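The data layer described in this paper is built around a simple, fixed record for each protein. Such a record has a labelled line for the sequence and another for the backbone structure tokens. For reference, a complete record is included directly beneath this paragraph.
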Amino acid sequence: MTEERRRTSGVADKRERAVLVGVDVGVRPGSSRTTAYGTHASVVCPDVPSPYVPSLDVPVLDVPGPGLPGLDVDASLAEFRELVVSAGGVVAAELQQRRARPDPATLVGSGKVEEIAGLAASVEASLVLFDHDLTPTQLRNLEAALPCRVLDRTQLILDIFARHARTREGQLQVELAQLDYMLPRLTGRGKSMSQLGGGIGTRGPGETQLETDRRRIQRRIDQLKRDLEDVRRTRGQQRQRRESVPVPTVALVGYTNAGKSTLFNRLTGAQVLQSPRMFATLDPKLRAIELPSRRKVLLSDTVGFIRNLPHTLVTSFRATLEEVSQAEVLLHVRDAASTYGGEQKDQVERVLGELDSLGKPRIEVLNKIDLLGLDERRGLESRCRSGHEIAVSAQTGEGMERLLQAIDGALHSDPILAAELRVPQQEGAVLAAIEAGMVVHGRAYEGNLVRLEVSGPASLLGRLRKYRLRDG
């Protein structure tokens, strides 16, 4: 990079330049555009406004072969690119590798490692990121062969979580996930570990340092688990206090960047962070909303899910995700404009299964319809009329009334009942409570009494038992 370019791109230079490596390993049924060793590489030129400009193309052989189910390698790499941007990095170059089976030493093979090393050096990258999990041996070998640091997909996601954790609870959960991931990989950290090199007279101190690191990390993990158990206990006490007043909880779940926080803000009037970057929300938010029946419910915004979400994160964030398991109804927010909506839905349901929440009542919320063309919107709205999906735009507010009505219909606790009440006019507090918490369908005055036809929550009607004439 020339000095002039460095001066004119000072902001970008502060961010790490990364080479992305997409890896397609396994079998994709029915696919014809895969190959055991087909590759494609593209180099990003900082002088060109478009962030991804192919400058080096190696043709992909169109022969039958294996691949990954679900997202193809191109779509997977595009999603991985978004993760890099969310982590604050700059994509300097991209490569794709398709293999029948992973290389046990380097995942991608020695020839591809040499190609990655040359490309990383040519674009002055400080980081090589693999869109695949690496074993400790693969990580050690790659760090020894490449001129810069190496991270895999899980490490990148953990780094993003660490960047976005704001509360003490979130920071504890991220640190626990990082240490859980790091502990079995200490022997594979190569350059980043302070072990002594191999050879006569050096093995003892090296192993001593390694065991010291392991014990120190294990002690920290144990402490984090105790701290998070305290958090879980406190959260449980808060939940018990909430449950003493029958206010059901509705939880937003969905793929990362599906628009959950934007929808949360639209429904509650809150101002929580909404960002196009992945995993902008880590800490749960709870706000009360009023439904058309005048029932109050608590709406919870939760962390987004993603393909191959690291199991260490699901485990570490279990205290946070308890809001999902305790919710009465789940709003599964999906990006209606995504071309991989089906795959994203499957990934969310997989995580819900890990949380034992797959059997809960769910409302499919198809968000971002404002990004669809006219014909696409008509087809989607026609599908929603005949199914259990609600088409909305959290950005514009379209479809919010239908969504609130759907939530109302899905709730079973504190059911809505119809009743007829007769309340003295001097009971101002009672009349105010009826107006605030029920839907009044009819009103008539009989002397100093007010006769009301209402529908409202059973809990509120129970408190007004002495004023009830009959149930509807």
Remarks:
- The chain has four domains: 3-161, 165-192+204-245, 247-410, 416-471.
- The chain is about 40% helix and 20% strand.
- Residues 1-12, 27-69, 188-206 have pLDDT under 50 and may be disordered.
